[in-house]
Amino acid sequence: MASAPSAKKEFLCILPDFPGAQEKRLAVRPEHLEGVKPLVSSGEIVAGGAMLESHPAEGEPLKFKGSMMLAVAESEADVRKLLENDIYTRSGVWDLANAQIIPFKSAVRKEL
């Protein structure tokens, strides 16, 4: 008898950048954004964005410190695999060893 598929769960991912990764992040950002599109379409990522050192004044560049992502998967291991395959991890932007993958349950979610 086949077992029922596992239910999908939400995971809040806090993904710090390595120190000094700003230039690398900007270089691979277009590839990262393209790679995220199919994950959003499939529902594996339902929210995400950059974490900043602070909100810049008008005309100042963004100073990144990492990323936040809300992922939907069967397990934390599945989320970790998704993160390991991202260009930000593969190119040395995200410090995955210090990432937090936190079980999460949305109460409210609104599209931009």
UniProtKB/TrEMBL annotation:
Domain YCII-related residue range list: 11-104
Pfam hit, one: YCII
Domain of life from the UniProt record: Eukaryota
InterPro entries xrefs: Dimeric_a/b-barrel, Sec-metab_biosynth-assoc, YCII
Gene3D superfamilies from the UniProt entry: Dimeric alpha+beta barrel
Name of the featured protein: YCII-related domain-containing protein
